Structures are given as structure tokens and as C-alpha cells.
Amino acid sequence: MKDDFVFVDEVVSGIRWDAKYATWDNFTGKPVDGYLVNRVVGTRAFCAALEKARDKAESLGFGLLLWDVYRPQRAVDRFMRWAEEPEDGRKKARHYPNIDRPQMFEQGYVATKSGHSRGSTVDLTLYHLDTGELADMGGDHDVMDVVSHHGAAGITEEQEKNRAHLCSIMEESGFSSYECEWWHYNLKNEPYPDTYFDFPVA
Asked: Does domain 5-187 have CATH number 2.40.160.40?
């Protein structure tokens, strides 16, 4: 692991994580290249900002659940190869119901050069501290559809409120949102804005 990178759970206490790309529970349907363990890795600057987000979330009765932070470039390369493979239908209904695989890149849901590979971008959600249940966001991680956009029509008042909570927590902690994905935030003053790393999460 590069010197300025750490396992997030070792630095930021009180968070939960489920590294989806290290598991079979992601849009490719199997563990992705570069994810050898179910851990999340990020820069130290990212972790410092995440601590602020954790504290703000706790003040509202929420905890943070992280799905992905640092993403090796080899994982992104795997996504590109996967997008060219024949459709098998296993994950389409859940993750990309209204588009075809190549359109994930065309419509901005997956990038050929991902901010995640710079080490300070996160996919996350909220959970209720009193019950441990995930907050209802009106959609799961990596649902590549307009319902995942900020300001999406057709979600409930509670779902809209929960998305707004997450957005305010993250933006007040130094992150910027991404209009197409309610779960995706990037550290504004990231330490490696032009570097795409490829060491594995191991």
C-alpha cells in the first residue's frame, strides 16, 4: 500500500463498511480485480474529513456505512472489459434496469478513469444508530438509473430527506457531491488530484 494510504477502519472509529467489489454482491456479479480483502482503503486526508462526517452524522442519529473508497485502476479496467461481454441478465434488473452495459460509461455511472483510484472518493450511505438499519434512500448502491440522481422524481419524502441529510453531512465535511449518484462524494482538496493508483486492496 502507498505510504499515504491506510485502512479506513483502522483510523476512523465507529464506521461500518461492506466493500462490495470484494464480494459477489456488485454489478459484475463476482469479486473484482484488485479487491483481495473486504476492507476499505483511503488517503489520510480522506480519513480526516471522514471523521468530521462521522461526527456530523452521529449528531443526527446516523452512522456511516462505506461501500467503496480507493479503487485500483485494474478494477476499472475490469469494468471496461465486463461492459464488452455478452449480457447474461444476472444483475441487470437490480443495477442497470433501463440501460445496456456500455451506456454505464456513456451516461457517467462508471468512468474509465475513476476518482476512486485517486484515493479520496467514497461511496457510502447512512444507517440509524438506534436500530442499525440502513436509512431508506430510495435505491441501493450502484443503481445506474435516473432514480439515483440528486433531485430524482418519484422517491418518497423520507427518502429525499435522508439523501439530503447525507449530502449536507458530506458537503459540510469538505466533500463534493456527484449529480448522478446520491452515494458518491469526492474530497474537494484531495491530495492526489492527478494520480490514479493501481496497488491492490490486500
From this structure: no
